[in-house]
Amino acid sequence: MPARQERNMKNIMTATVIALSTATLAQADGTELFQQLDANNDQAISLEEAQASEALVAQFEQLDANKDGLINAAEFTQLVKG
Fold this sequence. Notes:
The protein is mostly helical. The chain starts with a helix and ends with a helix. The chain has one domain: EF-hand (Recoverin, domain 1), CATH 1.10.238.10. The model has no long low-confidence stretch (mean pLDDT 79). The protein has helices at residues 3-26, 31-37, 47-50, 54-63, 73-81; strands spanning 44-46, 70-72. It comes from Neptunomonas marina.
């Protein structure tokens, strides 16, 4: 696949992921998304687990209100509420 087509495909995929993430975040209180991102089910999202969402990584430090290196459900709710 030529480089330009590959870039276009990546852009389309990125836009789709962002749209789906936004729609998912808009659902209720974000509990389902939180559970999906909390891969080890410890009731917190680590920076490693956050890698599944570019938006979450970008805001990780800001959302980690108690600066423990994890985002708990209450902190995550701030992302959902906007």
